[in-house]
């Protein structure tokens, strides 16, 4: 249990996928303008991330690894993610229309979201067990949500701030992200001691 | 026909592409696999040669059943062992690889996988730190800590220790641990004959020659620590604390551990209770834990050294006034229970020749005895 | 289109990282040293050229409906080849790039060029486009990597620089420094070109070249 909590909080805070590992920067900077879009996107990411982990872990350990096809990992994983996203989209559209209306629009963006592929590949490289992988993916998703929500708040201020002309738009957004990243650096070394 | 165009063709094309890609990858893999294997082995061997320069043809030996050991390799030419161990650092597990020559000396150490803070804990990976291990035996005598990176350095050291223990069991030799001064010796450095004595309520009690006793108490420190902590309380024959030292504990390194450092614990020396000793801010729980254990030990102390409360020779007159002799001091007490005068018990002596503390203590004790007699 | 123009286009006028602001993840993540930045750039260039050529060759054969999965499989195939090659012959670079090597698959520069250029143009033009974009990507990563290494570590390609190596601005080589240096480079480009250089003015989906890959859902999704 303690170990699971450490994995969870490490993924959320210390190894925050967006701010410390630089995964899913495109969507982090692109979709964080409005809070509701940021939250919708984040939940879609969490959802697909968990589904993708649940699908890729068994594929790797029960099919690829025994057949010594570990090198096919990248190809298979991205295909699984793409297929999964399509499938989830179709199922949601047909059976859970309200959920589809709120999450559906974000789903197609997710295939090329590197946080998903990053999470499933990292779960394999870190040789996590199935449950550890699920917890790690959940933490990665929650960390993404945290970064998105926090940053959408920061951006609503930054966008109206009076900055030098050449910093307007992208540069100031990146500098704001840098400052937020500094604050996440403060979590290093904390999680382990939290659950001692 | 429409169905064919809509579904069959796309599916066929995608499948075909997948097959071609798989084929191409299988081919590439067949070609590169031997090189990858060789590169992996060469890299692993190369890193082992760094810590054991004379080693060749390393072979993995089973390290299962050894705690905190990642892997172990034996040099095929008998030069020694290369063992990788781990310990908890500042940012999680920290791995250290060490080469130990056949005569039990370190030939080199290297920081491996770690999440230590860049520029701080990561300094344990620099040659200026790791070079000091070269030539050391299992006692690691004289290994210094990087100031500002205590936790990482200690973790590094403890990983090297673990490696030596593993070396001992793999090579089948006796390995001495680092020399640790037992807490009782820290308290009574001049005493050599320590004998264990029975004491109810304490974890352990040790008679320290003629100098006094050491009472070992166990209790909780930091509420989230993995286990209880042991505190050694030394009591002199005069009933005062001769010293306090920490035994086994799992207080947080660098935080709670501050309350177990000799620098802090020396404040107890000469006292009879923990009253008036400051807590260490940031390590309050551990400080309070120490105080509780010292207090409990001091309550048990009389059972070992006898009652050290000074004997009070009290004579109460009919009018309620009294006169008490405590050691070299005579205290006059009036009917209202106030001190009326203090003189030397020996009428020829001068009160000024007696230490003021002793006089004050005598007054307190006289009043206590007087009040006690009134109550009775 | 003039062949030379296609080649130079990706290096300066439409530099993927600095002008189009794409491929941000690797540009931030692996540029903590010059060598890593250039290594990543070259690996991505190889994938980009190969996938551009192959996709351009197959542009008639691939049905529109499944083109994105097809592109992804082709790209993933080349990425795996790069992974295997690096693992065999440049193990240290393979270890340094880590997961970002697999993530070349979802690098929007590569999918973007497939979608915007390779499936509409001839094989040779696609090849030139791949070379140009690849060089532009590599140069940008080299610039980021060099700046972060020089000021953050005080070395250049692991060679210590006198005066800087003793007191480097360590944070520039760490995660926040990536955002910071990137932001400043774009700001300086804006300044010297009077705001004309950087094409992408803000982060939204219309400027993302792979947004066609996100099918129609995008209309309400990203930019709302």
Structural features:
heterotrimer; B: 376 residues; alpha+beta; 3 domains; 5-stranded antiparallel beta sheet; C: 224 residues; mainly alpha; 10 helices; 2 strands; disordered C terminus
Plain-language structure description:
The complex is a heterotrimer of chains A (196), B (376) and C (224). Chain A has helices at 2-14, 25-30, 35-64, 73-95, 97-103, 107-110, 114-125, 130-158, 170-185, 191-194. By secondary structure, chain A is an all-alpha fold. Chain A has one domain (2-191). In chain A, helix 3 runs parallel beside helix 7. Chain B is α+β, with helices and mostly antiparallel strands and 376 residues long. Chain B has 3 domains: 58-171; 183-305, no CATH class; 313-375, no CATH class. Chain B is built from 8 helices and 14 strands. Chain B has a 5-stranded antiparallel sheet with strand order 1-2-3-4-5. In chain B, strands 6-7-8-9-10 form a 5-stranded antiparallel sheet. The longest helix of chain B has 50 residues, at 2-51. Chain B is elongated and about 125 Å long. The model of chain B has no long low-confidence stretch (mean pLDDT 82). By secondary structure, chain C is an all-alpha fold. Chain C has one domain. Chain C has helices spanning 3-11, 24-29, 34-57, 67-89, 91-97, 99-102, 108-118, 123-152, 175-192, 218-221; strands at residues 155-156, 159-160. Chain C has a two-stranded antiparallel sheet. In chain C, strand 1 (155-156) and strand 2 (159-160) form a beta hairpin. Chain C is globular. Mean pLDDT of chain C is 83; it is low at 205-224. Chains in contact: A-B, A-C, B-C. At the A-C interface, helix 2, helix 4, helix 6, helix 7 and helix 9 of A face helix 2, helix 4, helix 9 and helix 10 of C.
